[in-house]
Amino acid sequence: MQNKPQRRKRYPGTHPKRFDDKYKELNPADYPDEQEKVRAQGRTPAGTHVPILLAEILSALHPQAGETVLDCTVGYGGHAEALARTGARVIGIDIDGVELPRTTARLATLGLTISPHHTNFAGIAGVLAAEQLSGVDCLLADLGVSSMQLDQPSRGFAFKHDGPLDMRMDGTRGRTAVEFIHATEETALAELLREYGDEPKADALAHVLKRETPRTTHALAGLVLRVHGLNPETYRKENARDKHPAARVFQALRMAVNREPANLAELLRVLPASMNPGGRVAILTFHSGEERKVRDTFKDLLASGVFARAELTGIRAGKDELYDNPRARSARLFVAELPA
Ligand code: SAH
Predict the structure, then answer these.
(1) Centre of ligand 1 from the C-alpha of residue 267, in Å
(2) Quick one: average pLDDT of 117-140?
């Protein structure tokens, strides 16, 4: 069969409008060196995720060949890749049914096998039963969202690009952020903006959210700016390090849409029963609510002797890692070990 002549791609200009054109690293076949170039600039290449505190996690979990590792949040598989290279058997969970098969395939091209489970980590008992295991030797949970999720406008997690206000990590079920806002009472909305986002203007914001029900990420970001007395047309951050006023609101809505606090509570509840004697646990948190939950649980498990050792201060990324990966800024790592 004759190959059709390939038409050369049109140059999209210096300010391409489409996400796929703007991020050349999304097309490694056309731009093989682009991912490395972007990383060298301290940015995360679109469509990838840089694993946080990787060396610290490997040293805390120190999986041995033949042991079992449960990665509750596979994402791009940065941690899973390193864990699989130790020769341990890696079982991988993720609630994101779009990214999980991609990651499994990406790892396979590296000659690494993980056993993927598209499910919520709150249901690890079911995963262990399916794998015919009574417990695992190492468990990792890297909470929150992946860079792929954040960077893909169609998933609606961020306001950098406009997209539908969706925010579901599992796009196959549950309510989108728009549906969630529509279905939630104003007072409950205000409460979760305060509790999950520390939003100072929670009441005013909940009121406007109910009245206007924004349908896109830009509409929501604009609405937040207006409630904060800022003009969406002219707003610019004074300092690159400043947080956009909408960041807190996006975080709070994302947590609510995905029931993140309840899922973490359930993971922590079933954790001890999911571990083999001598097992090691590593949990990466990204905000104070998560930190508090993990620290308090680890403290209790240490006091009751379920854990032999636990690190309760929360290990932070060092200067070099933060320089290379600003997304590690809010990460805190909690590790623990069960008695042999
Ligand atoms: N450690 C990964 C990145 C993980 S990002 C890496 O190195 O690439 C966090 C991941 O957790 C996302 O892919 C998200 O979909 C997943 N996730 C969040 N909550 C979850 C839950 N309750 N159950 C399963 N996966 C979850």
Answers:
(1) 13
(2) 97
Q: Which atom of ligand 1 is nearest to the CA of 120?
A: 23
Ligand 1: which of 53, 73, 110, 143 to mutate, judged by most atoms within 8 Å of the beta carbon?
73
- Can you tell me which atom of ligand 1 is nearest the CA of 99? 13
Instruction: Write down the domain spans for the chain.
Output: 54-147+261-337, 170-257
State the burial class of residue 245 (Cβ atoms within 10 Å of its Cβ: 0-12, 13-18, 19+).
Answer: buried
The structure tokens 């499910």 sit at 119
Atom of ligand 1 nearest to the CA of 71: 1
Specify the residue with its C-alpha closest to ligand 1, atom 4. Answer: 75
- Res. 14: pLDDT tops 80: no
Residue 76 phi/psi, 5-degree rounding, is -80, -15
Q: Which amino acid is at 148?
A: M
- So what CATH class is 54-147+261-337? alpha beta
Question: pLDDT value at position 278?
Answer: 98
323-338 b/e (C-beta count within 10 Å ≥ 16 → b): ebbebbeebbbbbbbb
| Cβ-contact 159, 218 below 8 angstroms | yes
29-63: pLDDT as tens digits: 565 566 666 666 666 676 788 899 999 999 999 99
> 284 in ligand 1 pocket by Cβ < 6 Å?
no
What class is the 170-257 domain?
Answer: mainly alpha
pTM value? 0.88
Give the pLDDT confidence of 283-308 residue by residue, as tens digits: 999 999 999 999 999 999 999 999 99
